[in-house]
Amino acid sequence: MLAAQPRGGRTIRALNSTLNVERFFAGVSRANERVLLLDFDGTLAPFDPDPRRVRLYPGVARLLDDIMAAPGNRVVIVSGRRLDDLTPALDLARPVEVWGAHGWQRRTPQGELVDFEPAAVTCERLDEAEEKARVLQEWGARIERKPASVAVHWRGLAPRVAEAIRESLIEAWLGYSQSRDLELTDFEAGLELRALGRNKGSVVTDVLAESGPGTVAAYLGDDTTDEDAFGAIEGRGLGILVRPLARRTRAGAWLRPPTEVRAFLAKWRACSSGART
Predict the structure, then answer these.
(1) Residue 148: how many CA atoms within 13 Å on its side-chain side?
(2) What is the distance between the alpha carbons of residues 17 and 15, in angstroms, rounded to a whole number?
(3) Are 263 and 11 in contact, with CB atoms under 8 Å apart?
(4) Which of 31, 61, 191, 230 could cross-link to 250 by cystine, CB 3.0-4.6 Å?
């Protein structure tokens, strides 16, 4: 249940009675180490039927570069996209840590690449599922194969067509979604058949395991796929839902994009640089 409504001048809307926004940012100011984990599509950038056209919201690149320039800040981009698809959309002056394909790919700021691979039998099932989904391209669906999943997108299509694609896909993938190594998940304007074993929550767990005691952390995300991350950061940092309208979530706070996201990043920048806010 949504607990708190916004008050004038607040950067974040609290979704439960335990969150004290000013206390959180005071912790950001005091911390020697800070981790800011950020989803991309819908959080830092707008949606578009053609993902190749998507770029960061105006002003976000400058804010992220400034945050990364401050000592003690670690910025991590976490996306369902493959790294090859995500990299062109990031227009940052500084090298940034990026996790792609829901945590199955990682690129460090130094350019080191790490790939996690599902079992061979799981990859075979995904190949089969991808082939079965190809027929939906005739209806306008976009098929995206990732290292550990197959996603079908219908953004921009008529609601009736989108619903027909969704129903056909659920039927075609029923056997795969009931297997022990795959799960079927909804995301914004699509369905994805994903290998179990890693997700955005895995990224949060791995990143925080590399961080020292007393680290202040936040995760910003908009989609149902970000709920794993909100769960992983619970009790260790702040999960923040980014959407025009709030929904049931494990996140502790809520921001509307893009203005309130920019305000949050500006506040984080000011607190971590020692400026008065």
Answers:
(1) 23
(2) 7
(3) yes
(4) 230
Phi, psi at residue 256, to the nearest 5°?
-95, 135
DSSP-derived secondary structure letter, 50: S
Q: What is the CATH number of domain 120-195?
A: 3.30.1240
The strand pair at 97-100 and 73-78 is best described as parallel
Taking the domains of the chain in order of start, what are their residue ranges?
13-116+198-273, 120-195
pLDDT digit string, tens, across residues 176-227: 999 999 999 999 899 999 999 999 999 999 999 999 999 999 999 999 999 9
User: What are 187's two structure tokens?
Assistant: 């995301």
Q: 35 vs 110, 128, 228, 236, CA distance in Å?
A: 17, 39, 17, 11
Name the superfamily (CATH) of residues 13-116+198-273.
HAD superfamily/HAD-like (3.40.50.1000)
Write down the H helix ranges in 91-223: 120-133, 159-172, 174-177, 200-209
